[in-house]
Amino acid sequence: SLSQNPSLQRLQNQAKVLGKRIADHHVSLAVTGLSKSGKTAFITSLINQLLHARDHADLPFFSVVAQKRLIGVKRDVQPDMTVARFAYEDGVKHLCSVPPRWPESTNGVSQVRLLIKYRNQSGLRRLLSEHSTLTLDITDYPGEWLLDLPLLEMTYQQWCESFWQDLHDVSKSKLAEPFKLGLSQIQFQQPADEMQLQSVSQLFTDFLHDCKAAGFQLIQPGRFVLPGELSGAPVLQFFPVTPALLAEYSANKHAPDNAVIGLMMSRYEQYQQKVIKPFYKQHFKRFDRQIVLVDCLTALNRGAHSFNDLRKAINWLLGSFHYGKNSIMRRLFSPNIDKLMFAASKSDHITPDQQSNLVMLLESMIHEARQQIQYEGVETESTAFSAIKASQVGLSTLNGENVQVLKGTNSSGEAITLYPGDVPKVCPDQAFWDNQGFAFPQFMPMSQPQTQHAFSHIRLDHVLEFVLGDKLE
Ligand code: GDP
Asked: 2-141+284-388+449-472, which class in CATH?
């Protein structure tokens, strides 16, 4: 019979191997955002939703689930042994503890690999085999690191100039007092004193941390506040000197008394070559899809300076997705990202009637950068979501009218009910900041009633559909 014909059988085997190769495919999904934007909670919930997706998750907009084509999801060994493993189990343990707690934020790169087995729906894959497996690598990395990309195109002198320019902001300038004092004590005419440079670098680093604590978001250089494995390394020990010192330096370049500035320059260059570039080369280049989390609500809560700085930082960060011919990204790193999602996180802090405002607000923050990116052929989308829903919606009456309110638990464990306020549809002007009380407390996570069920969320299925839907057809 035909099936006993050896050459036909070989052909069939080859077709099977080929089919498997086409059927088994791979996507590298990157998740970023400034610190505390919700990356850890998001990835923990995403893994949790996928692991439970077939039977016990609530993902009506995720088509592979809605069409009942998902066969199973499991974790696998991550590909890159040099990168930390994303601490999924720890996160779940925190969320399921009594009382529940938020997972601890990560502050470097971490990774997880999932295998998603599903029934093919269409096209070539269906013809070749009934099932496919998508290997999904998720990489978590600090958005702060993307803020460093523009530094690759700045000299040390330019960086110093922009730093001192920035200090025209009165509140920042105040925070910089200790650093300025330390700087003024350096004897630039003397050979460099390594210990003194270390302590002034520390004052500079402290200043960056203080800015962050005060709600500023555009912090540079990014590794100074989130050093990852570079904590304490000399490549993170430099600081910007004043324009006056720079002018003196360039007027008198060859004098022997330029040791300090010379050293600062070389460390700055090392930072560019050994810190900024390797991140893009080792990680960024490999990403296929990217999610950028933006915590608009906490910034609104903290006031104008925080919100405006967040907007600046996000637009700055989006420079890493400008792929135009002459962009620094294209020239240096040939990136591959084809889909980019902007996601406003923690949307359980506002009532359902405000969700669409939050998306509009996010869009108004990133409008220009997004147009640029779309023009360059990357598909983009904005959404609002909550990774771990920590509030419930109720109704209350205000001046005789029904209004939606939120019920949750605050950090002291007390049950609270509140109306958090209206989310502005566009980036607010001064009048908003003068009049509006936009305030909400941090919610603690809700207790998990059934452990075999996935965590409650808001719109995570939309996120999943955008970043993975087409890969699971
Ligand atoms: P990361 O630094 O970007 O990894 O941020 P995390 O994921 O650690 O989130 C920081 C904090 O934001 C958490 O400790 C929570 O307090 C809060 N958070 C994150 N996601 C949510 C969410 O979906 N809902 C609520 N209510 N809070 C969240």
From this structure: alpha beta
Q: CB-based contacts of 18: which residues, under 8 Å, 6+ apart?
A: 128
Distance CA 249, CA 295 (A): 42
Domain ranges of the chain: 2-141+284-388+449-472, 147-282, 392-435
CA of 346 to the centre of ligand 1 (A): 7
Q: 438-466 burial by CB neighbour count: b if 16+ within 10 A, else e?
A: bebbebbbbebeeeeebbbbbbbbbbbbb
Q: What is the whole-number distance in angstroms between the Cα of residue 256 and the centre of ligand 1? A: 52
Residue 328's contacts (CB-CB under 8 Å, 6 or more residues apart) are 149, 152, 153, 319
Tokens (6 digits) for 459? 């719109």
Helix (H) or strand (E) holding 134: strand 131-140
Mutational test site, ligand 1, from 146, 406, 442, max ligand atoms within 8 Å of CB: 442
Torsion sign over Cα 138, 326, 265, 215: negative
Alpha helix segments (H runs only) across 185-235: 194-213, 222-225
Return the closest-CA partner of residue 468 out of 347, 294, 322, 290.
290
For ligand 1, the distance from its centroid to the CA atom of residue 35, given in whole angstroms, is 9
Q: What is the pLDDT of residues 157-208, one digit of tens each?
A: 999 999 999 999 999 999 999 999 999 999 887 888 889 999 999 999 999 9
pTM of the shown model: 0.90
Of 355 and 19, the one with more pLDDT? 355
Supply the ipTM of this predicted assembly. 0.99
